[in-house]
Design a protein that fits this description.
Pfam families: HAD_2. By secondary structure, the protein is an alpha/beta fold. The protein contains 15 helices and ten strands. 33% of the residues lie in helices and 14% in strands. The strands form two sheets. A six-stranded parallel β-sheet has the order 7-6-5-8-9-10. The longest helix is centred in the N-terminal third of the chain and has 15 residues.
């Protein structure tokens, strides 16, 4: 049996005790030393005799002032939340036992800084629909463009010769042709427009995609669709792909444009879920043409034009305002969301509002894209971390409440 050591030599100053505690928390458990220095402890030190010779064991009893159901634990996570033991390389008949009382400040400091690293990076995946969940080779995009041009000629009476240049200017300056047509002064029924543009698409080209379905269902993360298209089109596409039950909800045209506005507005009260008491309708009884049509072609043909482009009453991507409103409606935290898109403009807008982004349709990662996928089928190889941890809902004020089937507009 080792010789008895006087208790006065064992009950060292608290500074020495802090050194031992630091050794355990910082060196052995990996707690950042900067955090350790910010923690406040109160110690109760006492000595007692061990009945038989054995190595001395230093036990740290963590009396946490937090809910016992909390997931707070030391990294790497020990099997127990409240107790951690550490054997020292010394042998003596006494055990020095420190009771460490973690106050609320420690809990907040640890969970706020270190706990974040233990949590999965993303708690929501936001997907565009057309040419993202299926390839552009399906031919729907070409059909949409043709139908838009036909609508402009047949329903709005626009000169067919002006259509190519007009469509290019409207899409370039307003994000979608539909938003541009409304901006320059044409009025029309939104449901009729979507029915004309999407109603004649070759949906038969879309086939069930069991590979993508399996990948999506295996992702333990909230998944939401965000499209500029109308709700009928979105539902048809998801049904054809066999993905209708893979997403929590759909943010679409009707989501961000629940009422037929005749002028641009920033009134957030106008933004509601589809299915609310406010319905889209053209109640102004106007014809397709308002009092004056803005000559956008003439505007850009003048080198010294000082007039401003009119605003559109339609809310849609790539407008940053549209993306921010969509995130708010669906209760999505942009800092913990990965945004999948085939449009580089939409990717860059998403990046500016704080989203991490995935450009779909190419393996070349362009400016604004954090990842690039040739196809959605490559998602697991390109972003394996999405499967590496169980999903944990963020506690930063963004909950994963259900999103009603809601809506926005394609290149339309």
């Amino acid at each position: 049996m080792p010789p008895m050591v006087p208790p006065t030599q064992l009950l060292q100053p608290l500074t020495t005790s802090c050194t031992l505690i630091e050794r355990l928390l910082v060196a052995d458990f990996g707690l950042p030393r900067k955090l350790f220095l910010n923690f406040q402890f109160s110690f109760c030190c006492f000595a007692s005799c061990w009945s038989t010779p054995c190595p001395c064991t230093m036990q740290f009893i963590c009396l946490k002032q937090i809910d016992p159901t909390s997931t707070f634990s030391f990294p790497p996570p020990p099997p127990a939340l409240f107790f951690a033991s550490h054997k020292l390389s010394v042998s003596n008949p006494l055990i020095l036992q420190h009771s460490i009382r973690f106050n609320l400040e420690m809990k907040m400091e640890f969970e706020g800084r270190f706990g974040q690293a233990q949590r999965q990076k993303y708690d929501c995946l936001l997907f565009d629909l057309d040419d993202t969940l299926y390839p552009v080779s399906a031919g729907l995009a070409a059909g949409v463009l043709k139908n838009i041009k036909d609508y402009m000629v047949e329903k709005l009476g626009i000169d067919a010769e002006k259509i190519p240049e007009l469509c290019n200017l409207l899409y370039k300056n307003y994000g979608t042709t539909m938003a541009g047509i409304r901006a320059i002064g044409y009025d029309f029924d939104y449901d009729e427009y979507h029915s004309f543009v999407h109603g004649r698409l070759p949906y038969e080209n879309l086939k069930p995609d069991p590979v993508l379905r399996t990948l999506l269902l295996s992702l333990p993360i909230r998944k939401v669709i965000f499209t500029n298209a109308d709700k009928i089109h979105a539902a048809k596409v998801l049904n054809k792909l066999g993905l209708e039950d893979c997403f929590e909800g759909i943010i679409c045209f009707e989501t961000l444009n629940p009422i037929h506005k005749t002028v641009a507005s920033d009134d957030e009260d106008d933004i509601e879920f589809v299915g609310s008491t406010t319905q889209s309708s053209a109640n102004n009884n106007n014809n397709n043409i308002t009092s004056e049509i803005f000559d956008i072609i003439g505007h850009f043909s003048k080198s010294n034009s000082t007039s401003e482009l009119p605003k559109t009453p339609i809310v849609c991507k790539p407008s940053e305002d549209a993306i921010e409103k969509a995130l708010k409606i669906a209760n999505i935290n942009p800092q913990r969301t990965l945004f999948f898109e085939d449009s580089l403009r939409n990717i860059q807008s998403g990046k500016r509002v704080g989203l991490d982004t995935v450009l779909v349709g190419t393996s070349h990662r362009c400016k604004g894209a954090d990842y690039a996928l040739e196809s959605m089928h490559n998602i697991k190889e390109a972003i394996p971390e999405l499967w590496e941890a169980d999903n944990k809902v963020s506690d930063g004020g963004y909950n994963s409440g259900k999103v009603k089937i809601v809506e926005t507009s394609v290149t339309a």
